[in-house]
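Form P-L/3: holo structure prediction, ligand zinc ion.
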Amino acid sequence: MRAVLGIIATIWMGAAPVWAQDLSAIARLLPETSSITDSGRGVSLDLTISQSVPWRVRVLDTPPRLILDTREVDFAQIAAVPRRSDAVVDLRAGVFRPGWSRLVLELSGPFAVKSAAMDTAGTEGARINVTLAPASQQDFAVLAAAPEPEGWALPKPADVPKVLPHGAGPLVVVLDPGHGGIDPGAENDGHREADLVLTFAREFKEALQRSGDFLVILTRDEDVFVPLEARISVARAAGANVLISLHADALAEGDASGATLYTLSNDATDEASKALAERHDRDDLLAGIDLTEQDDLIAHVLMDMARTQTTPRVDRLAEALKAEIKAEGLRMHRKPIQSGGFSVLKSPDIPSILIELGFLSSDRDLAHLTDPAWRARMIAALGTGLTKWAAAEAALNGGQ
Ligand SMILES: [Zn+2]
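OUTPUT (holo model):
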């Protein structure tokens, strides 16, 4: 028997009886009695959770990583867990789906789960121990490709009401607050990009709907991870006329500041744009989603045709938004319209644009983003830009 068969591919654990525990509180990680340690050639992951929860572990590839899914656990203290490991090169944790959390340990190479257990006998909550052993690339590939176990069904990420396409009704706008849950996005001075863009999106939605000219749907309305593909699915299910993805990233390069409008292109404007697009795909991948879906040739041709019509509409949208942001006297990046290979913009037939409202790496931009008055001005500018663009497009289409 091959060694790999003796190794655990995916482990799904029911919670032990928890009668005596307070079930109303969300379980939380207790960092003082948790650790991540290299032992021999393997790794030992020890986590103390304030109460027992259903959980499972599995490995995924490209890059190799260990995924630990649990009923919702507050992992806010994950950075405080002592880490003595060369094998674990990165880790992140947070809400993955409503009611479910995910911890991702990025590994330096192929490892297999040797053992996984939860001990609820102690006085202090539940202790999860997972040990990893080095595996061959071949064995690891088998483990990483293992299907989800039966009975393991996370809630679907995109559950939005279907809005029927329409002619002269309100413009259907899908607002996409970037990041969320396990993926906080950029961070500066205690502020997380995921929170800032969610606040902005909610206020933007409120303002657009109040005008009566728009029907607005958010791809997420809470601090939850939504895969990039699911964000596109939301726009499609909603019959969106336009998708606006909202971000406020950090850029290492120089003193990037001011709002920037990004359109889709395989040829990024510059290295910074390229890196920004790649990082968003990487964040998505690390959270456990497989982006390797292949399009066949016919689908490609059809998509190219649709995109030929959509691209000039997106370019006009970018110009319309830029004009209003400038008219409002708000700062823009020295190159206000840029392009890159952002996956969330890849709907061939839905005009899609990504707005970096500012850069969290800039203190001035951070001050703007946290200022309700600044946000109201930006929202007014974007709303006016959208209205003018929609009117111009309708005129181009013969008043449709
Ligand atoms: Zn972002």
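COMMENT: Residues 178-179, 185, 193, 247, 249, 280 surround zinc ion (CB under 6 Å).
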